[in-house]
Amino acid sequence: MKLEIGRIIIKDIQLGTENSVKEGVLTVNSEGLIAKLKEDDRIKDVKLDVAKPGDKVRIIPVKDVIEPRVKIEGGNNGFPGVTSKQAQCGEGKTNVLFGAAVVTIGDVVGFQEGVIDMWGEGAKWTPFSKTLNLTVDISVVDGLAPHVHEETVRLAGLKAGEYVGLAGKDLTPDEVITYEMGNIFEETAKYPKLPKVLYAEMMITQGLLHDTYIYGVNAQTILPTVLHPFEELDNAVVSGNCVAACDKITTYQHQNNSVIEDLYAQHGKEINFLGCIMVPEHTTLAGKLRVSTYVLKLAKMFGADAVMVSEEGYGNPDSDLLMICKKCEDAGIITQLITDECAGRDGMDQPLADTAKEAVAVVSGGNVSHVVTLPPAEKVIGNAASIAVLAGGWEGALLEDGTLMCELNAVIGATSEIGFHNVTCRLY
What we know:
Number of helices: 9
Pfam families: Gly_reductase
Protein name: Glycine/sarcosine/betaine reductase component B subunit
Helix content: 10-25%
Radius of gyration: 21 Å
Low-confidence stretches: none
Organism: Dehalobacterium formicoaceticum
């Protein structure tokens, strides 16, 4: 499979009357985009705005972040199975408006969306303070059930990403990144002495408002399944969950999955990267036992020497993470875990809800309970008062002068468990 990602470097963003990129400036046809989104009769109103790195702007409550793209060759444009007909992702050519992002906002279900500050203390904690953001604030008609409301906003964000991405259709990319791998037998023949590594990516799939989609299929309904790593980098996976913002994997992060990027960078050098296992997270014990056993079975079938496991969310998914670890380690397959910690505001509580002695290689994305104080913004896009009902916020978290006090729980991407974030470690 071969995929070429063409990066069109975006240096600025503005609203206008045409959809174009000229000398690095992305102009979005605001009336055209609003008309496109309002084709869905469940949408009552759409407000567009832009937020740039360094602006004293706060965006709240954020639902999802999407990278605008356009398919140039192979497959279908957009998100196959969701906004376009089914097609194979992961091959052909895709142009990306690199540096730009679509950010959907609006009070969706009253909890568990997040905050992006474009400057100062808040900007340090979210990777989306560095992107040139087109914000899409969506109001829906009265009477929609919460899960229909979520679906409406989710689809609107994806359609907006697709619409804006068309601006890059006829442009020559500033740089092209080529991903190429043969089938597993070919790669293993090329690198017979390298350790064979699988990536098990856990996804929130816990019911209404807590789901992830692969080619439009709700992953809650699947057994762990094998995905070529390039498929996820090419729009096959979409976020549809309203979990704590800090470790929610947005659609943008699926499109730029850091674990896949890093494993592919080592493919043929230090490891033989076999591919991805997409692992649904269930709330029942039976579900957790089933998927952990199934991951082990797939790892054995592929002859994996090691499995990298990343989590989404925290709390009961910690058990899934540790079950996969224990079963693989007991079978002689090395595991490397990526998680975050819910260790209390002083960092002294037990960080995970479960533990296993086999878990000896664990990377932490940070403490979700760490409290930050975010100074008043000159402009708020959305509704600052919603912090009271976000995970990581509370009644009184918004002070009279506009200062926001909250846990990292509320900051989009602050403790990403696929490593797409700003937190790092320092060796003393």
